[in-house]
Amino acid sequence: MLAPFIRKMVEWFVALFLASLLIWFVLTSPVLPTFEVSEFEMADTSRLQRHVERLTHAPRMAEFDNLRPPARYIHKQFKAYGKAYYQPFKTAIGTVNNVIVTFGPDTRDVLVVGAHYDSLDGMPGADGNASGVAGLIELARLLSRQELPIRIQLVAYALSEGKYFGTRDMGSYHHAQQLKKQRKQVVMMMSLDSIGYFSEQPNSQRYPYTFMHHFYPSSGDFIRITGRLQDILAVRKVKKSFRKTDLPVRSLNAPEIVASVGVSDNTSYWEQGFPAVLISDTAADRNPVYHTEADTAEHLDYVRMAKVVQGVGQAIMDIVSEAGSPGLLVAQKTEAPEQNP
After folding, report:
1. Residue 188 pairs with which residues in a beta bridge?
2. What confidence tier does 35 reach under pLDDT thresholds 50, 70, 90?
3. Closest to 59 in 3D by CA, of 197, 174, 162, 165
4. pTM of the model
5. Which of 209, 224, 219, 210 lies closest to 266, judged by CA?
């Protein structure tokens, strides 16, 4: 009688072990260690800090017409490095603008990196999301030095916070929809949303579900790459590129309904059938002043933030080296004429 019981217990143990292994693999998308070093230049910390300070100087919210000054600032910065233009679109509050800068030839294949420039309720929004926009501007400077085989679009979105998230008033919704109408093939979209807050203190990292503590560190000193279950290959691809930097990187693949997965502009591209990932410091799960008046420029870690930008740049170069080929279809010029917001 004992032998069948023991055999049954062993079977249950093996099944539980394999199930745990599968959950670990799907959630964390592990990649093999790499001995390669990033060839992409690291961002300039002083430039990042200056952009964050400038963007947090005044409210960035639609209700009080506070989106136009940051849009002009972003456009001015973009224009120094590439072909910059506004993408106007109508919303319930009137016409607002995404700000776009492009690099590389006008190919059917497009790689998009985006970050929203509005903040919640007019708060300073240094981490959320002046950090992502500052990273976008610095990425534009670094990409202007590169030879690129396909079109790269860096997009600063007008609306994403609060009541606008998940609606058709989102700037990212309008941009993704435009790419779909233009029959562009998005090879990857990377959303930069809160990339500047890090902590080495134990238990500084929180998680939406208790079991996640068994899979991820307790210190918030890493950047996280997030995608849906079907985005596992996209997440792994970006994660491999980040591993070439010396910044710790973790990843999460889970259904969109899981907390912290469908929370940023990447969702607009999922809706159009494009591969997209979120690159984030995990925002409120780490930053105790996130979405408060205390989310100011001095709380950010600009050295680690610069490494995040380096990782994004390396991911771009790795992805376009695979996508770029002589056989790429070239699309007609479809960019909007420049307009003043």
Report:
1. 111
2. confident
3. 162
4. 0.90
5. 224
